[in-house]
Amino acid sequence: MRAYGSSACPDVQVLVPVKELDRAKSRLDVPDPARRELALAFVLDTVSTALRCEAAVEVVIGTRDAYVAARVTDLGARVVVPPAPGDLNGDIGWALGRLAPGRPTAVLVSDLPAMSLADLDEALTRARRRGTPRRVADLDGTGTTLLTAPDRRIEPRFGTGSAGRHSAAGMEPLGDDLAGLRCDVDDMQSLRRAIRLGVGPHTAAVLSSTSPDLLRDDCVVGASTGTTGK
User: Fold this and answer.
1) CATH 3.90.550.10, applies to 12-178
2) pLDDT at residue 122 above 60?
3) pTM of the predicted structure, to 2 decimals
């Protein structure tokens, strides 16, 4: 195991909040069964990459969706179930309280099918080395895909314009060069962008069965896994 920051072993706990599939990715212009399948595939590719990251000591999923919980548990993640009802930032705050105190912490969004292992590892390594709260903006520059801090005391401000709110809260920018980590998928334009970067195997499999034209138009070689992508 390589050295990470000032530690000789992995020490970052990564929290991934996940919406219920019935409410996820409503802006994707695909039939409802495919929308649910894609939303789940994004989660599985994101979590699979996080679990393989050498910097991460644990990956924790915060979700009320029992099917998502079962699938990510099979991958090796730990699940915590926020009390219902609650908004995203409240759910994240609750889940952060279930993590270990005094340990480097990251909050990672769940819709990053083009995120490479190298991108996530590099972002967590840089954040750990700098030792101050950091945020990664999405490719549009307005949203947020990753928050990091030296401990679990993170104040999430997700929602429209979250990059600006996180900056105003004192979180410094990180990872402008890490395109896969910045490519969250909310609509068809961002899905095509992710395909061009290269999506993971779960997303590629769903696209192959539900939207093969998208893959034929945009896909060449997968960025993070070597699967079909560009």
Assistant:
1) yes
2) yes
3) 0.90
